Every structure is written in C-alpha cells, then in structure tokens.
C-alpha cells in the first residue's frame, strides 16, 4: 500500500516534493524519538510494558504527523 502510493505520487515533481518533505519530517521525529528513548530508558528504568507503550506512541506520532504534513 505504501509502495503503491510512492509509485503513483512520485511520477511528477509535485509528488516527489510531497514524498521528500514528508520523509524529512518523519526522519526528524524518528531521530528525536530515538534520543528521547535513550534518555528515558537510561534515567527512568521503565518496565517492559512502559517501553512497549512508548514505542507504539512514538510510531503513531510519526505516522500521524507525516500524514498531516503531506
């Protein structure tokens, strides 16, 4: 499904600009989330359930922001 979107939207300049912009924004959120997770795991000593919830929340945030921006 995602690959079909890339193939369909990436054919012209506008589509490639959308894909590029959303990729840049997603990368920033993934990088910030990764840094936050490192600090959180190091300093808070969370349980495995808290880590799972944090990962789910982080990925949902990345997907939602990417959809809203593009």
Question: How would you explain this protein's 3D organization?
Answer:
The chain crosses the membrane at residues 25-45, 51-69. Keywords: Membrane, Transmembrane, Transmembrane helix. By secondary structure, the protein is mainly alpha-helical. The protein has one domain (18-69). Helices cover 89% and strands 0% of the residues. The two termini are 16 Å apart.
Question: Strands, helices and their partners?
Answer:
Layout: H1 2-9, H2 13-44, H3 48-69
Pick out the low-confidence regions: none
Order of helices and strands: HHH
Tally the structural domains: 1
Shape: elongated
As a whole number of angstroms, the C-alpha radius of gyration is 15 Å
What is the helix fraction of residues, given as a range?
over 70%
Roughly what is the average pLDDT, rounded to an integer?
Answer: 80
